[in-house]
Specification:
The protein is about 30% helix and about 25% strand. The chain is an alpha+beta fold and about 210 residues long.
Length: about 210
């Protein structure tokens, strides 16, 4: 599946000559963010099995980077020419507990009930792989989810918008009884959608400078 193949500059960052950015993800939200930011890229989803359970020896802050690296390495095996592979993984953390994607409605309801009226962290691990170079980083955004009535919660679950999203919600989703479902307290808004664009620009610039 390809989005658009481009070389040269992307999103205001000069890529190395003849380099192509490869998004190692099937996430429509990450592709949308890249497109809106002006990046030209191709999509080559990772075929590796997504890692869901964090080993106790790995800190929470490191885990999404580990998962992103696994995705990037799987796609690196199918590299063509001078490609820069971009992989990311997003998790929601509350009380030290990691919330990944909900597998069914009941699990989504439990996650949202846990988050409502509380502050939590959204963490995205990001990896860039190129010939002879790699960059690894993690962005953290602190958010707070609004309390909502049980009627609203059931309507949201009915909509299916919770599917495929860490913590069973999207910051871009509709308002909750007149207010945004989630507000950002600190950190980057795009990170909550799954890709920290500010961090990406920084890491691409560093990568380009050292090639």
């Amino acid at each position: 599946m390809s989005e658009s193949i481009g070389r040269g500059s992307a999103g205001g960052v000069a890529l190395p000559p003849h380099a192509t950015l490869v998004l190692a993800s099937a996430s429509p939200r990450r592709a949308e963010l890249l497109r809106r930011a002006g990046y030209k890229f191709i999509i080559r989803p990772s075929r590796c099995r997504e890692l869901c359970k964090k080993p106790s020896s790995i800190p929470v802050e490191v885990w999404p980077v580990c998962v992103a690296m696994a995705k990037a390495l799987a796609v690196q095996q199918r590299r063509h020419g001078d490609e820069i592979i971009l992989a990311a993984d997003t998790i929601v953390v509350v009380d030290g507990r990691i919330l990944n994607k909900a597998h069914h409605r009941g699990q989504a309801r439990a996650m949202l009930s846990l988050l409502m009226g509380r502050t939590h962290r959204v963490m995205t691990g990001m990896v860039l792989l190129a010939d002879g170079a790699e960059r690894m980083a993690c962005a953290t955004t602190v958010c707070r989810m609004k309390k909502a009535s049980s009627d609203w919660l059931e309507k949201y679950l009915d909509s299916g918008q919770w599917r495929g999203k860490a913590g069973a919600y999207g910051i871009q989703d509709p308002v909750v009884e007149g207010h945004r479902m989630v507000r950002v307290i600190s950190g980057e808004w795009h990170n909550v959608m799954g890709l920290p664009l500010d961090l990406l620009r920084q890491e691409l610039a560093v990568l380009a400078a050292h090639r």
